[in-house]
Amino acid sequence: MGGAKTDLKLIDENGLRLDGRSPNELRPIKIQTDVLDNADGSAMIEWGGNKIIASVYGPREAYPKHTQNMDMAVVKARYNMAAFSVDERKRPGPDRRSIEISKVVSEALQTAILAEQFPRTQIDVFIEVLQADAGTRIAGLTASAVALAAAGIPMRDMVAGCTAGKVAGQIVLDLGKEEDNFGEADLPIAQLVKSGKIVLMQMDGDLSVEEFNKATEMIDDAIKRISEIQREALAGKYRDIALEEGGE
Ligand code: CDP
In the chain, which stretches have pLDDT less than 50? Predict the structure, then answer.
């Protein structure tokens, strides 16, 4: 980020990006539920080159006890990047970046969950990044929301997100890794899908008000498309259950 120097031509003479996408085009996104037997709910998301598993455990009694909230469940998301998930081996364990991402994702999910139905409990969400290709916080959060729904945890609304940013002077949707590294701005946003309420927003780099408005419009529209993929993933889950129960 920050417009670092590169010889890469991030946008070509036809207005297309490094991977051939148009400015408003998402990378391919695939979500699969119930990928782990031992979780209460789980989802694997493949979003461009990102491969991320989100797993949910709970609600269960919050421990240690002083972390309990008498009025609601506490949502604890932990974002972790596998050492082999990036080009240059990542040192295992939490760093400042993963602590920050865990915090903002926890807060976003807490808003979506009907946490008041489960006082004194905690709901754990583990986000394991197996392969990283930019936009992992948003992809991880989007998968976590599906994993929570798959776990049967009541939610007031679905959460989905997307990034937009500025690359070679243009506003584009869903930054790829080179665009993230060498672009001028990166704006990840997550929303409650029905209400449109923003539950996560961070920004790296500079945008004018006009550029910011254009980026948020693109994100708003993309979130509708992404939430459809979430819905289909969950519908697949429930179709599988129905088939099992029907003995087919
Ligand atoms: O992943 P996200 O865009 O949410 O967060 P970021 O901090 O903007 O990181 C952008 C990308 O940089 C990540 O998705 C990884 O592909 C890469 N990265 C890396 O190669 N090594 C790290 N230690 C952290 C990030």
Answer: none
Q: What is the model's pLDDT at position 4?
A: 57
CATH classification number, 29-246, choose in 3.30.230.70, 3.40.50.1970, 3.40.50.410, 1.10.3720.10? 3.30.230.70
Query: Which residue owns the Cα nearest ligand 1 atom 1?
Result: 136
Residue 177, pLDDT score: 97
Q: Are 185 and 205 in contact (CB under 8 A)?
A: yes
Find the largest Cα–Cα distance for the chain. Answer: 60
Ligand 1 contacts (CB < 6 A) are 86-87, 90, 97, 132-137, 177, 180, 186
Number of residues assigned to the chain: 248
For a ligand 1 pocket test, name from 27, 180, 184 the mutation site with the most ligand atoms within 8 angstroms of its C-beta: 180
For ligand 1, atom 10, which residue shows the shortest CA distance? 134
